[in-house]
Every structure is written in C-alpha cells, then in structure tokens.
C-alpha cells in the first residue's frame, strides 16, 4: 500500500482519532484546526480560580480511547490518560423532595429504587438486561460499520440483528417502551426517558431501541478522566504527535480542492496544499456550505431535523454542597411539555430539567479548597431566531429558583464566578449547525440511515468523521466514526 499524504480538517475527537489510526497505518498526516486548541466541544475553560469542562462531562466506554493506544503499542498512562470509575453514576432529584442515587453497583442501585421509590429491584435488573441485549444485538450493525456500504448487510451479525427486529422497539417511542417495561412507574419512566437527550432527541419521538443507552453507563460504567475531560483529547494529541502527526492550530481551511471528481488538497487563505486524501471533521452542513460550495449537496440529508442544543452556565461556588454528587439531575414536573416546547415551539420551558456536573468532587484542583465548580446545563432548542438575551435571563432565574426550592438553601448568593455558553456560541465556537450538539436528531426510526455516510458518494478521497455523521454524536460514537471512516479509506487503497 502506497504511503498517502492525508489532511484532516478539524481537531475534534473524531479528527484526532482518525489521525492516530492513519498514522499507525503508516501514512503522513497533518491536522488543520481553526481554533488555537484541540478537542472541539471536548475542551475546557478557566474562570478565575475555577476550571470547567466546556462540553461533554460524562465519560463512558473508555475502551474506544484505549483501543487507539493499543493500536500504537503504547501505554495510555505514559501519555496522561487515566481515569476513575464513579461509584455513583448520577444522583436524581424531584420536586416532591425524593432523591435517589444511581449506583454503579447494580445490587445497590436496585435496593435504592426499591426502598425509596417502591420500584422492584428485580424489575430494574430486568430492564437493564434488556438494554444490554439491545446493545449487543445492534451495536455491530448500527455503530461499528457503515450503514451505507452493502457489505455491512452480508454479515452474520447483521442477519441476527434483522431477526431480532420485532423485539427492538423500532415502532414504539422510548417513552412507550419505558412505560411498558417499567410498570408505568412515573419516576422510573422519567429517569430512563432522559437518556433520549444523550443524542439530542425527545423520548416521545425517538424509537424505543434507544433504551439500549443506559447499558453504556450501567453495563460499561461511568468514569472521570484524571485531569478532566480535556485529557481525553489532549492525551490522544500527544499520542498522535508521537506517531508523527503534525497539528496546525489557528489554520482555518477555506476550501477542499477538487479535480476530476477527486480531492486534490485544501486551501488555507490563498495557499493551496496538495494531499492525496482528505478527512473532514467539520460539521457536515458547514463542510458542504463553506468547503465544497461548488459540489452537489446531499439535500435530503442536510435538511434532516437537528438535535437539541444546550444552555450552560459555568458557576464558581464559594461553598461545597455535600448533598450533590459528580453528576446530578433535577427533573421537571412536566417532562412531556418540556420536550414539546423544546422541539415544537423551539423554546425553553418554564420548569426545565437541570443537570449539574461538579468535577471538583473528584478533581480537587478544579476549584479552591472548600469551593465547587458547577457546570449547570439545560436542554435548549436549535437556533431559530429566538430572543436569546431574554431566554437566558429567564432561564437563569428559573434554574436558581428550582435549585433553591429543591435543595432548600441559597444558591445565587454563593456564585462568585460565571461564564455562559449558548446555542449561538456553540455554533460559533464549534461550527455546529444551528447550535445542534449531535447533528441530526434521532426523532424517527429511520434517523440512523439519514445521517451522512463516512465517505463522499461524489468525490474520491473524501471522508467524514465527527458527531454530525454516522454513527452519531458523543465521544464514543465520534471515535467510532473515525474507525469506520479510516477503515474504509485504507480498504480503498488496496
């Protein structure tokens, strides 16, 4: 196989993963990133004496990161990648004063829901066993291989998956599936409905097959990287550089150069750089809009409904809150209305579900002694001409009132530092179309097939990775997009 000179556009986690894989395969790789730092959404910020993970805050399936080090024959710890397993995956709070801890230990988790919510421990275990079955049945089809190559459908695992279709919940919503399997228990249904937000979708629209998502937390575990979430991307950059990959920061690619229906390089400013192959880690909408303006657009794919966005407040707190854990959810009293507002009205509900991540519970240097760093997030709609200045002010007031009401103690008085990330800023900083966190939403049973493939159907030598293409958003799936795309690239060279 002839050594290729390959350009990667974007140093998000998908682009970094692709860089490692291609370097291990013996190719010359250069990564061009418009920002001054790697990681895309997987970055961090410093606000006064407080450090925050800017974007993703939950780490699951570390095996996909470790796989990259194994491919290179390296020890992850030598490059700064290590992690803690969380004893409590998440702590949940409701308006009526009830709260539970979702323990990593399934026996303890079962005892917790039985004693506090009156939900049978065995029913929880049965539900999670079902989630595992769905994951193991579908992951080899929908996650680990291209849905856009005919060869995928001639695998034995695909055949097994097809046989299991009647039991996968493709024609019921996640909410309908959860009501059926969780004995109509309102709090347990709401708890497991919230996993629809892991791909920016509504539990009342996304298919029941999404009930496999809890297995990623309870089956594989939830973790906290030592040094914060940024160390996932930073450690992989160190590995890539060790393998000879060159990273060029502050280098905004303006165009993918094309000749005779094949890529021939990229343009940065007025400079044209020749490359044999190009891997694009940019949001696929903007890739066509800005980098491939003269090429036919896959209109049907690009016009698919977008996932939700987020409104995030980064609060430096001058006190500690022992009643909170690393991950915390404060539920809305009207979940259906919250999602109706989000996806139909394109607005924010007056009683939002609030997520709080406090990394300083594990990484004490993320906040001064006795203080905490609060990453406070609510689901938000995609950009649609809203008055965000008004929505942000309203939301902050409502979030504070909700937290003070449920926790029974003042919150606002203890905020000493604050930063904000809105859907508009998400689009600006990460080039995510309309501020969408996960590209296309999964609000219909065929959504997986409407994601852009990891290769171009029109242009030879062009591949796509990241959360806006197959198999989807989030750290594990973005890393899998790199695996699917690079395996396809290497196969096409033989």
From TrEMBL:
Belongs to the carotenoid/retinoid oxidoreductase family. Pathway: Carotenoid biosynthesis. GO terms for molecular function: oxidoreductase activity. The keyword Protein transport does not apply. Residues 13-489 form the Amine oxidase domain. It comes from Saprospira grandis DSM 2844. This is Phytoene desaturase. The lineage of its organism: Bacteria, Pseudomonadati, Bacteroidota, Saprospiria, Saprospirales. One of its GO terms (biological process) is carotenoid biosynthetic process. The keyword Oxidoreductase applies. Pfam families: Amino_oxidase (PF01593). InterPro entries: Amino_oxidase, Carotenoid/retinoid_OxRdtase, FAD/NAD-bd_sf, hydcarot_desat_CrtD. SUPFAM superfamilies: FAD/NAD(P)-binding domain (SSF51905). Keywords: Carotenoid biosynthesis, Oxidoreductase.
